[in-house]
Amino acid sequence: RASRLMNGRGQKLRVSFEFFPPKTEEMERSLWEAIERLAPISPHFVSVTYGAGGSTRERTHATVKRMLDETALTPAAHLTCVDATRDDVDAVVQNYREIGVRHIVALRGDPTSGVGAHYAPHPGGYQNAADLVAGIRRIGDFEVSVSAYPEKHPDSRDTEVDLDMLKAKVDAGATRAITQFFFDNDLYFSYLDRVRARGINIPIVPGIVPVQNFKQVRNFAERCGTSIPRWLAQRFDGLDDDVATRKLVAAAVAAEQVLDLVDRGVTDFHFYTMNRADLVYAVCHLLGLRPALKEAA
Ligand code: FAD
């Protein structure tokens, strides 16, 4: 079993946390409770998503700005090029540069008519995620993270097309990829082998979803092409109305997945927090990550 803060090869572990911008004051309060609880773990960075079609442009910006102003965290702003001209997108990037953001998570995004609809770039916009990455790098010396799909993106004909796109994003200047969430670690490692065989050498950071709500996760998974192993469904079977047990099972499932990845050499993890701290905090604790103040004491 991996030792504290290290993987089996003695390499240091790092985590990052993803949040979404809140819609209401109540959601804002619970987001900031989660941030306050997770911040002392000293994540490598925290990221804030961008709503479909840029619908959260202002809210994403406001959340990132508040992180810069009120915390010691390093924020990364997600950005998509759906339904936007290059000038619009460039203005957002310039603005981030001016307020001191140095990391952007660059995505194509989904068509505003819904996931699964045919994607068409805006006539005056960036053509795809690789084009967007190149545009961002032209504006400033940003760290640029992009997406990666161990189980293939639903739009892709096959995995090879997917790897072509990842390669194009790296050639355009992407410095890290974060994966779509998955539950079968073997799929991640076989994907990683294919990525490396393509000569792609940036970190491919696993995206981890702690299962707060199995039904909701199953729906997300269906839309984004993540497979739900039979054992996972069985573990949550019969717990729909039993929140307390569900939470314990969810922590056990996430811990098992992450500790297995650590044992197999993974050092970086990106947690899709859903703006909730408890499960993520527990898994980080199991990884040996402790609040900075306690550690110093
Ligand atoms: P790309 O990497 O450009 O493409 C994904 C795959 O689709 C490619 O590998 C390629 O094979 C295939 N593809 C693309 N275009 C075509 C085409 N024309 N024909 C055939 N195949 C094609 N969405 C948001 O709206 N906001 C967010 O903040 C956000 N954050 C995300 C964070 C992460 C870590 C991940 C994994 C996803 C996120 N998404 C977000 C979802 C993402 O926008 C969608 O998955 C979208 O459908 C694809 O965007 P992408 O940048 O992954 O696309």
UniProtKB/TrEMBL annotation:
GO process terms (BP): methionine biosynthetic process; tetrahydrofolate interconversion
Protein EC: 1.5.1.54
Keywords: Amino-acid biosynthesis, FAD, Flavoprotein, Methionine biosynthesis, NAD, Oxidoreductase
A Pfam family assignment: MTHFR
Lineage top rank: taxon: Bacteria
SUPFAM superfamilies recorded: FAD-linked oxidoreductase
NCBIfam families attached to this UniProt entry: fadh2
Pathway recorded for this protein: One-carbon metabolism; tetrahydrofolate interconversion; Amino-acid biosynthesis; L-methionine biosynthesis via de novo pathway
EC category: oxidoreductase
GO MF annotation, one: FAD binding
InterPro entries, per the entry: FAD-linked_oxidoreductase-like, Mehydrof_redctse-like, MTHF_reductase_bac
GO terms for cellular component: cytosol
Cofactor: FAD
Family recorded in the similarity comment: Belongs to the methylenetetrahydrofolate reductase family.
Catalyses which reaction(s): (6S)-5-methyl-5,6,7,8-tetrahydrofolate + NAD(+) = (6R)-5,10-methylene-5,6,7,8-tetrahydrofolate + NADH + H(+)
Identification of the protein by name: Methylenetetrahydrofolate reductase
CDD domains: MTHFR
